[in-house]
Amino acid sequence: GQAADIEITGVANGDLAKYIVDNYKFTQVILEFYTPSVLDSGWVHVSYDPSNLKKQVLTAVKQDGKTVYLPGLVA
Predict the structure, then answer these.
(1) Is 42 helix (H, G, I), strand (E, B) or coil?
(2) Nearest 10 degrees: Cα torsion 17, 42, 68, 56
(3) What pTM was estimated for this model as a whole?
(4) pLDDT per residue over 15-54, tens digit each?
(5) In whole angstroms, how far apart are CA 2 and each of 5, 6, 18, 50?
(6) Backbone dihedral angles phi then psi of residue 20, each to the nearest 5 degrees
(7) How far lies 51's CA from each of 27, 47, 75, in Å?
């Protein structure tokens, strides 16, 4: 119950992830499988544990058929 995958209709998931990173406390934000030219591609994973607000930021991409987590928001 401390994490969710989210999207907002009409808002690019890259923009949503950046807004969360810039404005909220969190444990982890992952921009997952986002393509900048496709507004509604991917999703944003957010976790919140008040005892561990490490603010880890990652981007999940597919490389050679495997999921790879890159540091930061890569779009």
Answers:
(1) coil
(2) 20
(3) 0.94
(4) 999 999 999 999 999 999 999 999 889 999 999 999 999 9
(5) 11, 13, 20, 9
(6) -65, -45
(7) 9, 12, 30
